[in-house]
Amino acid sequence: MHKTYTTGGRRVEALRGCSLEIGEPGFYAIMGQSGSGKSTLLHLLAALDRPDSGEVVVAGRAVHAMGERDATRFRRSGVGIVFQQYNLIPTLTARENVELPGVLAGEEPAKTAARAEALMARLGVLERASHRPDALSGGEQQRVAIARALLFSPPVLLADEPTGNLDSVSSGKLWGLLRELAGGDSALLRGEDAASSGTRAVNSGARHGRAEDGTPVAPGTGGMTVIMVTHEPAAAVNCRGVFVLSDGRITGHIDTEGLDAGGVAARYQQLVGGRAA
Amino acid sequence: MRAAWRLAISSLWAGGRRRRAALLASAAALSCALVVGVACAMESVHAAINKQLAVTVGSADLRVRPAGSGSALPASVLGTVRGWPEVARAEARAQGAVMVTATRPVLAPGAGEGAFRRKDMAFTSAALALSLSEGADEEGALLPAPELMAGRLPGAADEVVLDDLLAYRLTYSYATAPEHRDGFFLPGGGEDPRAPVVPEARPEVPERLLAQTSPPAPEEAGVRRAPAGELAHLAERINRNQGVAVGDEVEVARQSVLPGFDLPGLRRSTRLKVVGIAAMPPLGGRPQAYLTLEGLQRVTGSASLSQIDIGVREGVDPEATARARRAELPKGLLLETTQKVTAGLQKNIQSNQLGMVLATVMAFLSASFIILTGLGTAVVERQRELAIVRCIGGTRGQLAGAQLVIGVVIGAAGAVAGVPLGIALAWALSLVFGDQLPTGLAVSWWAAGLGAAGSVVAGIAGAAWPAVRAARVSPLIGLAARAAPAKRRGLAAVTLVGLAFVAAQLVLISASDDGQVLFWGYATAGLPLMSVGYFLLGVPAILVVTRVAAGGVSRVLGVPGTLLARTVSATPYRHGLTAGALMAGLALMVSIWTNGGSMLRDWLDKIRFPDAFVSGLALPESAQRKLESLDVVAETCAITLTTVETDLFGVRALQRYKTTFVGFEPEPFFGMTRLVWVQGDEAEAVRRLKEGGAVIVAREFLTAQGLGVGHRFTCRYGEREHDFEIVGVVASPGLEIVSKFFNVGEDFTDQAVHAVFGSRADMKARFFGGEQAPVHLIQIQFADGAVERGAPA
């Protein structure tokens, strides 16, 4: 994939021949330094933007070829997006925020309400359902955002620095949640406390997908595909596999099995040529 | 739609945004209220005028009347007229001057203590007796029945309805007021005779004495014997309640030709039963009594009619009918249309309605600007929210739809608040101008509908551009939205478009000489373009104002010097369009208020004409001086008519045309009669008329003869030629009404086509060698309060 922007009169090549294939569900991370093209890649996957050249196929759907209407539908039910800033609508309550994709889709209100309630209960924010975002903590807001992203049970969940604004305790809980979503494999859920306390989290899950260099990524045990953009090794260690993006290309893949955050950071440094993330 | 509705409501109802939504709705409500208020006020004025016309002219299309006072209109003509196939309805009218007398018992203190003495007292008043046609109270009656305050209309020849002025004249209070004697008004002032008399002490009346009296027992009847001094007071109080009521009998007689020359036996008197009391006609005037045609003929002893009102069938041209049927009437009768009288007023009504449409367009354009600015600002502020909605699957249509729903809700809220507010405003105006609006508030439901619809349309129009902007929000750019400085190119474009729109209005105005093209071009394109142009020019204007004034204002406010300027300059569109909307709104409010007020004043002023007229074959000039010596008369204007010859209108064989030179006294005349100056102006005309050698002409003269200001009028009087310059062309809706009122409508039009109006002093100098000239008409303006005290009687 290639993608070039013009910003402030300057031409920026955000992606220059980026290639990535993920074949099986699981929790993946894309790491890279600022300006490496992480967010651009996520936008292309979410049908928020189109590549200048190349193909984007998500869950069997050619996102790069979608028109305006198909892209909108795809964002509504084909993919879930979670942002660093949570991006809840401030004028709606937590429940209304979660229900919003259903409203936009014109779904029967009762159906939407039932699913939203179940999701909120599962994510532990049901008792905060009638509150507006400004009355929720950062962690609660992010869980509401995840519930909203999951309303239509999309096969893919994209998360852009989801813990960037959270404290370590909330971050740890969120990673655990994403892992749970990614698999249904209880083994993936290990170490929530360790993660939240900042200690080494060891990923023993199966590997998925295929890196640009052709390294095979083993299939997982099921669930959805969660792709998280991050520059934090502590976050990436929770993932089954980490794709390293540098200068608009996938330059390597880190198998997190047996690694702690320090190990992930060291491998990452090697792949980006010694530059800090 | 549900999504758009949900997004719109959440956006409107969110805590901090409610106030803005309320303000935007207030803008729509204010525009709506102004439109509805002014329209209702105009409707009230129209209703008052129409009522006046209905009473004086009725809804007849044609009428038959005697050509002069010497001609009679036989009752048989009614049958002839009803036999014409073009006629849908024909009603006969008769009228005559009568004397009405009511005899009522009154009390006087008796000889002994606590005794009353009963005596009969006759109250008499002159009145105009009018016949009511059969079915006068039915729908479609050509001349509607008077508005009843009590009782019913007369159904038999021995029944009568008095109007409340006549009923009042037949009361003890009126008859014994210091200003009156024998029921006739004498000038001299004094307290308002209608004011109730309230004694300082409230005496109690002995039951025994009450039993001896025939008048009704007073409300405060008691049991204590009152001293003789108090009885006189009490008798007065009881007597003040004496007057004519429904069920009483009155004597009605044809009024004697000469006052005081009233020999018993020569005047036939008829006893009639009062079956109703009617409200005075809106124009006021003489006391009136309403009878059946048969009853009136019995009282006056004349079988002649005074007029036949004719309503033609639908699709029939009254003018053509008048031309075709005129010859079938006996000699001495006129068949004429009523259209000429009402045409001027209808034109005024139509022009005011057109003006109202323009004002409505402007008012709602202004509201749209305000809504556009408010919602546009909200869209900019909420870009991130909109982008989020796009990110999670919201379509462009849903975002645009939400803005339009917001516009509809704001407009509807404006309508809900604005319509009743406007009606309340008009109601307040009708109270303030209660004297001039005898019919009270008339709600214009079409204007209420127009106001409500306009408010909603203004909401939608104001939301249209924000909707486009919302739909164009990119999810990516919206999420990363940061304040960006306004581009010079955009500012230049806004300035150029604004200037182009303002210039387009000027071009439209000068594009054509055709009034119709000009008006509709201006109404549909020029005015809206100008408004939008000025609105857009608010953007560069705010930058200029900021540059000039920000430093000084900052110092006054005590804020850092550059803060204010930078804040405004950073968001010139928001500030500029807000300023533009406020400017347009304020201008509109001032404009509507001013125009509405001037419309009302125009209406009320245009129908201004003298309070009274004195006419005679050739009154001496001393008659005018006598009138002026009366306290109740503020001013008079003597008018002299004389025939002159002119060949200005062409030479017919060897005989010259004769026309009328009307000599009047310019300043008092213009003071009493509101004229519309079609050409020239009043100040210059007065100056020239006083100098002499100048005349003014009527609009009809200009139309018929093609002669206006600057043209010369040469005429011959006696052996000499006289030359005048036309210095003004005028019209007077008020005189059109009054000419109709005095049955001179046709004459008025004929005169207006040919006659010229010059200074009476000039006329005397040129035509009468400076000697006295006979006076044919004296216009009278009563002193303030004289009319209320009954001076017209």
| Mean pLDDT across every amino acid position of chain B | 76
Percent of residues in beta strands of chain A: 15-25%
Task: Quote the average pLDDT of chain A.
Answer: 78
Give the terminus-to-terminus CA distance of chain B.
71 Å
Helix/sheet category of chain A:
alpha/beta
Order of helices and strands of chain A: EEEHEEHEHHHEHHEEEHEEH
- Rg of chain A (C-alpha, Å): 18 Å
Query: Helical segment tally of chain B?
Result: 25
Biggest interface reads: A-B, 28 and 23 residues
What does the overall shape of chain A look like?
Answer: globular
The oligomerization state is heterodimer
Which class best fits the helix and strand makeup of chain B?
alpha+beta
Beta strands of chain B, count:
22
- What would the principal axes of the Cα set say about the shape of chain B? globular
Could you tell me the number of beta strands of chain A? 12
> Any low-confidence stretches of chain A, pLDDT <50, length ≥5?
185-222
Q: What does the main sheet of chain A amount to?
A: 6 strands, mixed
Give the radius of gyration of chain B.
35 Å
Helix content of chain B: 40-55%
Task: Give the SSE layout.
The complex is a heterodimer of chains A (277) and B (793).
Chain A: E1 2-7, E2 10-16, E3 26-32, H1 38-45, E4 57-58, E5 61-62, H2 68-78, E6 79-82, H3 94-105, H4 109-123, H5 138-149, E7 156-160, H6 168-183, H7 192-196, E8 209-210, E9 216-217, E10 225-230, H8 233-236, E11 241-246, E12 249-255, H9 261-271
Parallel strand pairs in A: 3-10, 3-11, 6-7, 7-10
Antiparallel strand pairs in A: 1-2, 4-5, 8-9, 11-12
Chain B: H1 2-13, H2 17-56, E1 62-66, H3 76-82, E2 87-93, E3 95-109, E4 116-132, E5 148-151, E6 159-163, H4 164-169, H5 172-176, E7 180-181, E8 184-185, H6 207-211, H7 228-240, E9 249-254, E10 269-278, E11 288-292, H8 293-300, E12 307-312, H9 318-325, E13 333-337, H10 339-381, H11 383-391, H12 396-432, H13 445-471, H14 475-479, H15 488-511, H16 515-557, H17 561-570, H18 572-606, E14 612-619, H19 621-629, E15 633-646, E16 657-664, H20 666-672, E17 676-679, H21 682-691, E18 694-698, H22 699-705, E19 712-717, E20 720-731, H23 733-741, H24 745-754, E21 756-759, H25 760-767, E22 775-782
Helix pairs in contact in B: 1-12, 2-10, 2-12, 2-13, 2-18, 10-13, 10-16, 10-18, 10-23, 12-13, 15-16, 16-17, 16-18, 22-24, 23-24
